[in-house]
Every structure is written in C-alpha cells, then in structure tokens.
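Subject: Sanity check before I submit

Could someone independently write out the structure tokens for this chain? I want to compare against mine line by line before I put it in a report. The sequence has 151 residues.
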Amino acid sequence: MAEQSRLDKVIALARHRGFVYQAGEIYGGSRSAWDYGPLGTALKENIKDAMIDLRCKVAETEISLREVIDPEIGLNVVELGLVREIDIHDDHAHIKMIMTTPFCPYAPHLLEASRVRAQEVLGVPTTIEVGMELWDPSMAEEGVLSDWGLF
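---
Independent answer below. Compare away.
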C-alpha cells in the first residue's frame, strides 16, 4: 500500500479533531466537498477577526503618520508616498520609509517623528527602515502635488 501523502495526513488530522467534515457526512449526498466543523468555524472566525484587527491597526497607523509633515514641502509623509510598508506584529512594528531625496536634510526628524507617532498609536516598540528606493512624484497621493506644478 502506498504511503499516505502529507495533505492526506493533514486532512485526516483536521477531520479527526473536528475542524472539517466531508459535506456528505453532514448533508448527505456527494462526498466530494468539505465543510467546516464547529472548531473549523471557530478557527475561520478567529482568523477573520485577526485580519480585520490588523487592517484596522495599519489604517490607524497611517492616519497618525499623516501628522508628520515634511517641513520643506509642507505635506505629510503619507501624502508624499514616503511610507512604503507597515508591518505589525504582536510585540513590535516595523515601518519602511523612503526620503524625497537621498540627502534630505530633514530625514532624521521625519524618521524619528514617524517612529514616535506609530509607537504611540500601536503601543509596541517600532523600528524604521530607510529603503533605497528612489522617490518619484508619481508615488504621492493623487492631486497633492498640483500646487507644486508637478501633476
């Protein structure tokens, strides 16, 4: 007899522990589909709630970062497209940012202000990474650079 595949082992374990059932066992009829058991439904809901919570935290962080203004341009770091990535975990957060120019004189101020704002909102230690990606005016939110004559 052939050895059981890894997927078959996982399915057997999930079925044994009550996470999934073949639809035929619940509703009768075809045995070709699977359905969540009570534990599977609870797991699915917990994952969905965690994803919604994470999206809310990212949105709250972006809103708070809108308070960090580039003093040269007069626009916030989110409008300018300087915040490239926000990665939030249970015990820490990491933000990847870029600057408008490689030798931006306000870079230390913008990075520290962004880190402090994010840390205040999230309540966890936050680190900032400066990406090597070159900023382009097309990275800014639509319409914010119209006063500058760029778009």
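---
OP: Matches mine. For the report I'm noting this point. The longest helix spans residues 38-65.
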